[in-house]
Amino acid sequence: MNDVTPGDATSGWKPDPFGRFEMRYWNGTAWTEDVSNAGRQTKDPAGAEPGGLGQPQPGGAIPYQPGVGIQGPIGEGWIPELNLAAAGPWLRIGARAIDFLILAVIGGIIIAIFAAFAFDIDSANPFAFGGGFFVMILVIGLIGVAYEVGFVAARGQTPGKMAVGAKIVKLTDGQIPDTTTAFMRWLPQAVNWVPFIGGLLGLALLIANLVLLFTDPRRQDVYDKAAKTVVIMAR
Question: What's the rounded Cα separation, in Å, for the pair 156 and 148?
């Protein structure tokens, strides 16, 4: 399967047009057997041979074919509306872990700042323990919302997704989410704020997201379904 991206003489890693892996190396004239999943490289000789799932188009995408949805060793999905492969589940889990660590560091700094005021219980200071604790939780929560909504609306990528090369786009037109869509994508996380049962609801949300990442044909988790978005590999 040669000359699969007409006019594209730039060699490099690109989304796998055969749909079996996240990335495949294009040498400037043909697809090679060098492939990658979540940054781990391996060989896929069959993918570089004639045949397969269809003739790749410019940019590395291949035409949608009925019945082709769950492909590859880690179950990459296919997005027929955009004619693109979805980012793999392990890649997305890695991106979420990076974002969690970043927010954890920010939260730790905020806790340290508030701790300097939170133990003076008899003080009239508004940051005294009690009210200060709830203010601290509110600040941490608002930063989390701004982090997720701001980055997604600005460029379709949180720092975690930037690190792994994934991008959030709208299912309807493939464009970066606007602010409303980005907020709708964050909104399911609000269950964590429900009094008394927020922890259980958050755990249920986590489990649902993991199941959907590995089983949904488009790899849409709860956040994606709420906002009608999908996650693809950034070009």
Answer: 10
